[in-house]
Task: structure prediction
Amino acid sequence: MDVVTIGETMALLTPETTGKMRYASHFSRKFAGAETNVAIGVTRLGFQAGWISRVGEDELGKAMSSFVRGEGVDTSQVKTDSQAQTGLYFKELRREQDVRVYYYRAGSAASKLGPEDMEEDYIASAKYLHITGITPALSETCYQAVRQAIEYAKKHKVTIIFDPNIREKLWESKEKAKQVLLEIAAEADIVLPGVSEAKYLFGEHDLERYASLFIENGAEVVILKEGSKGASYFTKEEHGFVPSYQIDRVVDPIGAGDGFAAGVISGLLENLSLEKTIARANAIGAMVTMVNGDVEGLPEMEEMERFVQDTKE
Ligand code: KDG
Result:
């Protein structure tokens, strides 16, 4: 396995019309979750990804597992839970700059994930363990599952890549979110915060200071995402900024960060320089925003290369 990830995927319902969702009566049904968005992104680029999760023993759970498996992700570590349902989320596209997300996931099958669902050999077989800040927010057992996975990854020298993915609606308080996210960031080798997430975790600082705070906290590589501008990278030895690509219209921004993470993981798997890795990640993040759905815009390698050639930075 090139990368293993752990987390919840949900049925995603989006109104077929833009504007206030209260007036919508027709919805499209897709599937999405930050972790499978990344796993599918990596798989589409030609690498092997595995997903650890739980789904309900229901129609949505069955369709979701087949969808993720159909995309080529290994689902051998996905358990079916007869006691809990598959989670749902709605994405309301009010206007280009106003996209809202509503969760119906409390008590879902995936929130019952626990340390006993983490298979040591499976995690040890991966080159990268991808962790998001969403999974530990879902429940205490999910938090323990993440801790267990990190312990196995460290034992077997699997590189840990952490995307804070702060979802305030999932946390009981900002203090709790900060405490858990910084604790996990401290265990990670590579962290991928957005600038607003760095601000949430550390308060108002400049980019260099954010990077040194993450490095003092334990990370070796910090990639700070600056939205449509691009991203900066920092290690103890080097730093730089890589601009993103100019696109005419954003159709749906949700999932761009996961596309970015898939680009980072694939670049690192190919031993590209950080600069080339981030250029690829920027391209994939931009491409995801051009299509409705979290994973539908994720490119194959050749498509991504064509986009890079044809699009201005
Ligand atoms: O990054 C996109 C995710 O936020 C979306 O797919 C849904 O996983 C999701 C979540 O928990 O918000």
